[in-house]
């Protein structure tokens, strides 16, 4: 009879993968320390390496999105200011009879 499957949280997986990336100890030694299968160590190490580019790329995407949002807010504020100025000039032109 098989035991229950253990589910590991992402922090644990990251710790194991970082240990494997250091290349100080073998996958078997790391697996023994963390009480997991050695194949799991190499799988998590590979996932970490594959996902590293996404990790650094996501920061740039978010930054670009934030820049667009800030630019959009700035333009909305400018439109609002111009609308107020137009209303003011209309009132003054009526008062002066222009």
Give an account of the 3D structure.
With 98 residues, the chain is mainly alpha-helical. The protein has one domain (10-96). The chain has helices at 10-22, 27-34, 38-96. α1 (10-22) crosses α3 (38-96) and α2 packs across α3. The longest helix has 59 residues, at 38-96. It is rod-shaped. The model has no long low-confidence stretch (mean pLDDT 89).
Helix count equals: 3
Q: How many extended strands?
A: 0
Distance between the termini: 94 Å
Oligomerization state: single chain
Let me know the largest β-sheet: none
Order of helices and strands: HHH
Question: How much beta, percentage-wise?
Answer: under 5%
Number of domains: 1
SSE topology sketch:
Elements: H1 10-22, H2 27-34, H3 38-96
Helix pairs in contact: 1-3, 2-3
Briefly characterize the structure.
With about 100 residues, the chain is mainly alpha-helical. The protein contains 3 helices and no strands.
Structural descriptors:
98 residues; mainly alpha; 3 helices; 82% helix
